[in-house]
């Protein structure tokens, strides 16, 4: 066991920090409150990701033969941490480089790869992920949006909800039903968002403007060539996508940075002598560190080429615990941060609030841990 | 960074596991609550497992690995203090090693008995050998460690050349590594029981009210393990404080649940659960408990400017 970063890993982190230092605008902290899916940040992200791409820092963890630098999962983690602590200046593009690009490379047709990959690699694409529906959240496999093959076209009817980035995205990675088989009846279509019949409605949210949407599909027609993989292959394909994404966003990193910031503000105000406050800060820090280490244990396995399974859910739940404790610490001892006094802390609060819901709810993680880490008998259905 | 075991660590763990194999099942016993084994103890001492940290290539990380693994056994073995402190002592001091917090001299001390090596951590770090007169054994104690009270620290206790801060760090690491092992074993035992026991026509472990709390215990146990290993590796005061804090907090969160999920069976001495949980209860309060640990985290992470 070696808990030290190698010189090379450390240098990579410093290179990224130097890049941020020279690239981000002076008022970035306030600006980043717009939220990752806001029009402002999305526009900025295009400029930012273009610069990242110029420095070969947009897809450094992709294999060399597909335009990356072939860096290992530790570098991917460092990249994700640095960006997330900074308020994710890549906006929604982090999804492209983390899983949409790699999934297209594995399952996409030559035509699809030609159509979509160059934009991703240049930092110009924005995708949205059309999975959840009003009746299908945690129980994703119950989804009902239909795609019917009529001649050479699919005709799509149905509704998605909570779709991040849908307002500005160019393309939707859409899950839809092509047969009644629960999981093997689901198919992926890659649909340009300007296709007639698509209506997007923004849902006002606690996270910030432009973040989540409803997307309606009314007789939306796309050529059969928009299908990714085969009919019914969606469950397998998203399983693969998730292997790159199982840990999700390294939320512990921003949570800890926010905690450090909060403590420093409290200290300046002479409010960090209270033992009650100090004890609470200590607990929050320990949870952030436990989350970080649980995640690193998984990154370490990935770096050894081992397959990652349910233990990722354990690391995710640890992250939810940390996010919650830090957010509660700030609300309790620095309520002015939830007004306008400390933009960085407000930004953390807005983003942290979704940790236990987005990308798989907390209780679902616990269900997975119970069955697949602890090996307990399953609940009857 | 890489977090898998080295070949040496794997070899040591294999040797430890095969030595410990005969001691994996719980002894049938009544009072006292603690299960101890002189045979297991001497095998571990003679096998050199408590001295691994003296080898710089193995270091305190390997010591923590040994402590964690031994804590999973139903038998209480004094490993934490020995494995973390013996490398610092110039003369070979006899095991058991007992750590005493000078601020709380009236509290019971684990493994204390005549002939034990006592290390007192206060304004300085001092050492003495326990003589019969200062030890008052507590055979009825509600802990699964052998416990005794210390009636005083002799004036001529030897002052050790160990900074107080370092002694605390090593103690915190020992607490965290031991709690990690105890939690893992208690969790396993509870999962086995709730899988085997049926009520309402199905295993208890299929009820979500239990599953979620067990899953959360897994998350905590995993976190304690990794914080303990990291702190053992860095010996950084903030890492050690976070490890001890998360360990004590997690022990507090889990112990009640584990007993609860066993129903009346969890109240018996015939089921081994208490052999782990009643050790956890002793460790929750060590070195001042969670409040002291949390304040220590704050002191070390954010020193006064
Ligand atoms: C900010 C944000 C962004 C999102 N972005 C996207 C996106 O881009 N694309 C997309 O497709 N989706 C997106 N989602 C949706 C997200 O994936 C879902 O919210 C999530 O899967 C949970 O589904 P739900 O909201 O319907 O909650 P529900 O499934 O209704 O769950 C509500 C509560 O019930 C619990 N629960 C559900 N089932 C069980 C069970 N079996 N046992 C115990 N408890 C249970 C849950 O854990 C949760 O606590 C986003 C969500 C948020 C908050």
Automatic annotation (TrEMBL), chain A:
Transmembrane segments: none
InterPro entries for this protein: Acyl-CoA_Oxase/DH_mid-dom, Acyl-CoA_Oxase/DH_mid-dom_sf, AcylCo_DH-like_C, AcylCo_DH/oxidase_C, AcylCoA_DH/ox_N, AcylCoA_DH/ox_N_sf, AcylCoA_DH/oxidase_NM_dom_sf, Mycobact_Acyl-CoA_DH
UniProt-recorded Gene Ontology molecular function terms: flavin adenine dinucleotide binding; oxidoreductase activity, acting on the CH-CH group of donors
SUPFAM superfamilies reported in the protein's UniProt record: Acyl-CoA dehydrogenase C-terminal domain-like, Acyl-CoA dehydrogenase NM domain-like
Acyl-CoA dehydrogenase/oxidase N-terminal domain segment(s): 6-124
Highest rank taxon of the organism: Bacteria
Domain Acyl-CoA oxidase/dehydrogenase middle: 128-220
Assigned keywords, A-Z: FAD, Flavoprotein, Oxidoreductase
Required cofactor names: FAD
Keyword flag Oxidoreductase: yes
GO cellular component: plasma membrane
Domain Acyl-CoA dehydrogenase/oxidase C-terminal: 235-373
One Pfam family this sequence matches: Acyl-CoA_dh_M
Family from the record: Belongs to the acyl-CoA dehydrogenase family.
PANTHER family assigned: ACYL-COA DEHYDROGENASE, ACYL-COA DEHYDROGENASE FADE29
Protein name in the entry: Acyl-CoA dehydrogenase
Species in which this protein is naturally found: Pontixanthobacter aquaemixtae
From TrEMBL, chain B:
Keyword hit for Ribosomal protein: no
Pfam family, one: Acyl-CoA_dh_1
Keywords for the protein's UniProt record, in alphabetical order: FAD, Flavoprotein, Oxidoreductase
The UniProt record lists the keyword Flavoprotein: yes
Organism in which the protein naturally occurs: Pontixanthobacter aquaemixtae
One MF term in the entry's GO annotations: acyl-CoA dehydrogenase activity
Name this protein carries in UniProt: Acyl-CoA dehydrogenase
Positions of the Acyl-CoA dehydrogenase/oxidase C-terminal domain: 173-281
InterPro entries attached to this UniProt entry: AcylCo_DH-like_C (IPR036250), AcylCo_DH/oxidase_C (IPR009075)
Record Gene3D superfamilies: Butyryl-CoA Dehydrogenase, subunit A, domain 3
């Amino acid at each position: 066991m070696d808990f030290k970063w190698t010189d090379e890993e450390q240098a990579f982190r410093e290179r990224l920090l130097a890049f941020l230092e020279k690239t981000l605008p002076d008022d970035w902290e306030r600006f980043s409150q717009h939220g990752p899916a806001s029009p402002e940040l999305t526009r900025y992200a295009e400029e930012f990701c273009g610069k990242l791409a110029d420095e070969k820092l947009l897809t450094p963890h992709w294999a060399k033969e597909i335009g990356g630098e072939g860096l290992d999962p530790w570098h991917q983690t460092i990249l994700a941490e640095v960006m997330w602590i900074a308020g994710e200046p890549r906006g929604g593009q982090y999804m492209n480089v983390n899983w949409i690009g790699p999934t297209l490379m594995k399952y996409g047709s030559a035509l699809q790869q030609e159509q979509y990959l160059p934009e991703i690699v240049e930092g110009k694409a924005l995708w949205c992920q059309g999975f959840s529906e009003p009746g299908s959240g945690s129980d994703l496999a119950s989804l009902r949006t239909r795609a019917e093959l009529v001649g050479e076209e699919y005709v799509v009817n149905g509704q998605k909800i909570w779709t991040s980035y849908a307002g500005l995205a160019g393309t939707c990675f859409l899950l839809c039903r092509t047969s009644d088989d629960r999981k093997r009846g689901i198919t992926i279509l890659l649909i340009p968002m300007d296709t007639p019949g698509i209506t997007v409605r923004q849902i006002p949210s606690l996270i910030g403007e432009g973040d989540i949407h409803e997307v309606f599909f009314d007789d939306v027609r796309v050529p059969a060539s928009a299908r990714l993989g085969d009919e019914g292959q969606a469950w397998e394909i998203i399983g693969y996508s998730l292997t790159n994404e199982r840990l999700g966003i390294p939320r512990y990193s921003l949570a800890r940075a926010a905690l450090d910031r909060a403590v420093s503000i409290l200290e300046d105000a002479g409010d960090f002598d209270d033992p009650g406050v100090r004890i609470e800060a200590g607990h929050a820090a320990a949870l952030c560190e436990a989350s970080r280490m649980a995640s690193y244990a998984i990154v370490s396995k990935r770096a050894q080429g081992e397959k990652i399974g349910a233990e990722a859910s354990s690391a995710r739940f640890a992250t939810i615990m940390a996010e919650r404790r830090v957010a509660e610490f700030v609300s309790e001892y620095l309520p002015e941060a939830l007004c306008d006094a400390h933009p960085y802390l407000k930004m953390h609060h807005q983003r942290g609030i979704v940790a236990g819901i987005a990308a798989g709810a907390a209780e679902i993680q616990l269900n997975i841990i119970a069955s697949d880490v602890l090996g307990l008998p399953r609940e009857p259905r | 960074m890489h977090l898998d075991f080295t070949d040496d660590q794997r070899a040591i763990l294999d040797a430890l596991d095969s030595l410990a194999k005969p001691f994996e099942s719980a002894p049938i016993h009544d009072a006292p609550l603690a299960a101890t084994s002189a045979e297991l103890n001497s095998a571990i001492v003679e096998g050199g497992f408590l001295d691994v940290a003296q080898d710089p290539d193995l270091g305190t990380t390997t010591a923590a690995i040994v402590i964690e693994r031994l804590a999973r056994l139903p038998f209480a073995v004094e490993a934490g203090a020995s494995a973390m402190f013996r490398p610092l002592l110039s003369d070979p001091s006899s095991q058991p090693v007992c750590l005493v917090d000078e601020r709380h001299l009236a509290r019971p001390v684990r493994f204390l008995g005549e002939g034990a090596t006592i290390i007192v951590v206060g304004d300085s770090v001092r050492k003495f050998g326990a003589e019969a007169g200062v030890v008052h054994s507590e055979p009825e104690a509600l802990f699964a460690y052998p416990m005794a009270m210390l009636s005083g620290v002799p004036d001529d206790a030897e002052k050790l050349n160990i900074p107080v801060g370092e002694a605390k760090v090593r103690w915190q690491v020992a607490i965290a590594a031991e709690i990690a092992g105890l939690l893992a074993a208690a969790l396993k035992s509870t999962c086995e029981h709730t899988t085997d026991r049926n009520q309402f026509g199905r295993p208890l472990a299929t009820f979500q009210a239990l599953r979620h709390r067990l899953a959360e215990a897994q998350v905590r146990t995993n976190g304690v393990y990794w914080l303990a290993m990291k702190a053992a590796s860095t010996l950084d005061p903030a890492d050690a404080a976070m490890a001890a804090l998360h360990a004590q907090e997690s022990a507090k969160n889990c112990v009640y649940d584990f007993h609860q999920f066993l129903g009346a069976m969890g109240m018996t001495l015939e089921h081994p659960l208490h052999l782990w949980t009643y050790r956890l209860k002793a460790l929750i309060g060590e070195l001042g408990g969670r409040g002291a640990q949390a304040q220590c985290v704050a002191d070390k992470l954010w020193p006064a400017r």
